Structure formats: C-alpha cells, structure tokens
Amino acid sequence: MTTLFCNGRFFQSGPGGQGHTFAECMLVDDEGQIVHVGSPKDEKIKAAGAGVAVEHDMAGHVVLPGFIDGHMHLLMLGQSLQKACLEACQNIEDIRRTIKDYAIANPSVARIMCKGWMHSMTNGEALASMIDDLDPDPSLSIPRTSILPGATLLR
C-alpha cells in the first residue's frame, strides 16, 4: 500500500550533511521504499493524494532518516551533562578529587553520577571502599566507559 506522509518536517541533506533542508511530504511505495520527498505542490505528491495512497498527517513533527545501528542514546546524552566527568583522571587520587569537587559544587544532588571511568585508572580494581569516605549522603554511580559489558561501582 502506497503511503503519503504529509504536514511534516522531513530532514534531507546532501553528501556529508551539506545543504540540509526540511521537506513537507514523503511518499513511500508498497514495498516500504521512499520514492519521493518534497512539497505538496510536487506532481508525485499531488497524484498520490488524489489516488489510493493512505495519508498520514505528521502534525508538523520532525522526521529523521534511519541509521545503520540506528539507536541513539539521547536520554543518556542529556543525563551525561549532569555527571561528574572522570575522563581526564589518571588514577584513583584524581577520581577522588574530581568526585569531591563535584559534590561540593552540587550539594543538592541526591545521587552523584560519574562518566568516563576506565579500569586502567584504578589498576584494574573497582572497590567501593576506594570512595566510601568521600560523601556519606548521596549515592554514587561510576559506570565503566567501554563498548564491552562493564562494571559499575555503586556506593
């Protein structure tokens, strides 16, 4: 079944993301292939609208192209902006100092979240006892930075 998506903001760009624009309509054929992206004034869009195409009003929503392995960690990106960054730390002393500075600068947080810890920073150990004395009130989460299954040091 041919489907016409209209009244949307369909992102499109040239090679390398140059010259990006937003189109108002997208036409998809019976096999799920995008056959046209454009304006309601385009002949293909007019013909589909007058024919047997099923129409979906996108109510002005933005539609982005699919990506290979197209999951995006937008929530995690937003959360990472509120985390103590350990990426520049070289050892446990740097980590402890960074966490302590973060706790002082953010006294109202209920949980200190960190990012950027690597096993090599702590000689391959991940023990809660290494940070227990830093701040007794908030809980602390330090996930390992890796594409592999990681360890999380929770206090």
From TrEMBL:
A Pfam family of this chain: Amidohydro_3
One Gene Ontology molecular-function label: hydrolase activity, acting on carbon-nitrogen (but not peptide) bonds
Residue span, Amidohydrolase domain: 57-134
Superkingdom to which the source organism belongs: Eukaryota
InterPro entries: Amidohydro_3, Metal-dep_hydrolase_composite
Name listed for the protein in its UniProt record: Uu.00g120690.m01.CDS01
